[in-house]
Specification:
A five-stranded mixed beta sheet has the order 1-5-4-3-2. Strand 2 and strand 3 form a beta hairpin. It is an alpha+beta fold. The longest helix has 16 residues. The relative contact order is 0.28.
């Protein structure tokens, strides 16, 4: 099975750094799953051509794209409601 690598756009990285340590850990745990099977753990939006998934018991959402050619996930945005 191919393992994907996650990369961050600047804005998403800033959002990640603003999370609490606990929220950041749950995001990192979800990203570890996404890197093993990004389509299995996300939902695709064909109108936006991007993927989304939740983390932290539904308190967080991450938006991302999948680049199969480079085995890469690009994290576009992170939201945390708590």
């Amino acid at each position: 099975m191919v393992r994907y690598t996650a990369r961050w756009v600047t804005y998403a990285d800033e959002q990640r750094r603003s999370l609490s340590a606990d929220a950041r850990q749950t995001l990192d745990d979800k990203l570890a799953l996404l890197c093993t099977a990004p389509r299995r753990y996300g939902d695709y939006s064909p109108t936006r051509d991007q993927w989304s998934t939740h983390f932290g018991d539904g308190w967080g959402v991450v938006l991302y794209t999948i680049e199969d050619r480079w085995n890469m996930i690009t994290v576009l945005r992170v939201s945390w409601a708590k």
